[in-house]
Amino acid sequence: MRRRQLYSGPCRAALVAVALAAASLQAAGPQPRPASPPPSHAKPVPRLLIRNAMVVYGNTKPAFGPVDILVEGGLIARVGRLPAGSPPPDAIIDATGKYVLPGLINSHMHLQDERGGIPQPLQYEMNLYLASGVTTVRDVGSDWSKSKQWRAESNAHTLVAPRMLVYSRIWANKGMAPGQIREGVRSAKAEGVDGLKLSGMDRDQVEAVLDEARLQGLKTAVHIAVDETDASDFAELGVTSIEHFYGVADAALDGIQDFPPDHNSSNEIHRFGRAGELYIQRNLNREKLSAVLDLMIRNKVAWCPTFSIYEASRDVVRAQNLPWYREFLHPAMEEYFRPSLANHGSYFIGWTNTQEVRWKKNYQVWMDAVREFANRGGLVTAGDDAGFIYSLYGFGFVRELELLEEAGFHPLEVISHATVNGARLLGMEDRLGRVRQGYIADLIVVNGNPLSNLRLLTPGGADVNVDNQNARGGGIEWTIKDGIPYHVPTLLRETREMVAQARAARGKKAGS
After folding, report:
1. How far apart are CA 298 and CA 295, in angstroms?
2. What percent of the chain has pLDDT over 70?
3. By C-alpha distance, which of 211, 232, 372, 224 is closest to 301?
4. Rounded to whole angstroms, how far apart are CA atoms 337 and 334?
5. Beta 302-304 vs 75-79: how paired, if at all?
6. Closest to 135 in 3D by CA, of 429, 478, 451, 379
7. Distance CA 410, CA 407 (A)
8. How confident is the model over 155-179, as a mean pLDDT?
9. How far apart are CA 156 and CA 469, in angstroms?
């Protein structure tokens, strides 16, 4: 009986061709798998491979490589070549000629969705921080109810943002008598704060808040005011970190700072003008200053100097004309920066050359003190405090790294301040801050070698020398948080669009 022919003509010819091709492949042996694609922006990847990277480990170890880094389930699964027969990655980042660093930790910042009462998208700030390689932030002062929600959304990856640890001042809501302070600290703990933000207060108040914080297992950060207490009091009583420069030199004076009779500390022109003279007081006792640093080190008090936030005080014209303002300065921030005592940090009304000269000299002594503190074993971290005083998110953080180098730190030390040291400050050194197997996959992929020029970390890159010709280079290509890759050029494009839309809306409103 003849077999029925199911296919004929062109259809049968096609099937024959497929069969012949399959036979040919089988004869040729196993075929190479198709190359894995690059990752998609802001999309989780089950197995992400970063290939051929030079690695800056995080703890001042010199760079090494090229090596591969495998990310699985949000963790660093392997640093080194994959064994033969390993399952193929779902996506690959080709890091040939690039450097990979741990995600950077901003130890002093503020979550902001408005400036001076003018709305400004939180996503604007978050994009700029991610674009500068920041994967973790320590917020030290914002609206608690909002920041609590933003923290949850960041942890759930429904908000494109760095990881957030929120240090709040809600502990002070119960009152400032010692008993009320203790009640407030317990209440803040129950609310879920990650730590407490403190500012200047009397000695008995400091004793109450720091003792109760210790009992509740809460870390603390203090912005010391010109007050009854100084760095010696806070270090003696167990604060976790001292922010900025206040309080340290105060504790090293023979007597007090020389304030003129008309000084008004509520007037920011007065306050910031005189702050720039603190480290150059005639009665600064260098032996006392060293003793204060030793006390801080002995009691494990970290120092987050935030050099970049005050830099406008030593050169306001430079600060007012930074090149990234052209594309990235949101109108709300632009308005906030205008000299006006109505906005904190906008004190440049009639700012003088004499004030700038004093600030420049102040920086020299301050930087020397921070360097001495680190040389003796003190923990220095990196924070920008941006959103004030002409400092823009992300850009200000990279500038902080540059100023740490100006203070005398090697670029490898600078990177450690923003990675390993930041993780230690947060109590997360067992899972953050290093390119290490088993650690959280917070990583940044940089176009070029930031150890040769920290400016390469600037969002959008920097001017570089190519065969004695000026060219644009550097910049971070990918910021990876919890194993999720964020494409920095995409983040910057979105941010430009936010700024352009806000400027257009402002122009339309002004013209109506």
Report:
1. 5
2. 93
3. 232
4. 5
5. unpaired
6. 478
7. 9
8. 98
9. 46
